[in-house]
């Protein structure tokens, strides 16, 4: 069974509901903006770190060969140290590449999260 309410009571209840929801909505919007800013800063930091590691990797690839040869010393030491340095350098290069790939995935994931949160925010604003 339904009761009929006067339109003035209904509009007053709607106004009260709206006045109680607006501050909460504004608080949530501020929290979302803060979180998006934090994610954007983290994304920029990861991009910068990735570029730095790429630069080091490319610089190390070009200059690394000359540096390991010049730091090896005499002819007898070159043959002994060259094998160990080469394998250590190869392992380090492999680790740097793996880290670069992980950072790339992290940047991609963060950008997708930011896009998802922006979509959710737009949808919640549109629903109001």
Give a written overview of the molecule.
The protein has 128 residues and is mainly α. Helix content is 92%, strand content 0%. The protein contains 2 helices and no strands. Helix 1 runs antiparallel to helix 2 (75-127). The longest helix has 65 residues, at 7-71. It is rod-shaped, with a radius of gyration of 29 Å. It starts with 6 loop residues before the first helix and ends with a helix. Residues 66-81 have low confidence and may be disordered.
Q: Tell me the radius of gyration.
A: 29 Å
The oligomeric status of these chains comes to single chain
Distance between the termini: 29 Å
- Total strands: 0
Amount of helix:
over 70%
The secondary-structure element order is: HH
Can you lay out the helices and strands and say which pair or pack?
Layout: H1 7-71, H2 75-127
Helix pairs in contact: 1-2
Question: Which properties best describe this structure?
Answer:
2 helices, mainly alpha, rod-shaped, single chain
Give a short synopsis of this structure:
The chain is mostly helical and 128 residues long. It has helices at 7-71, 75-127.
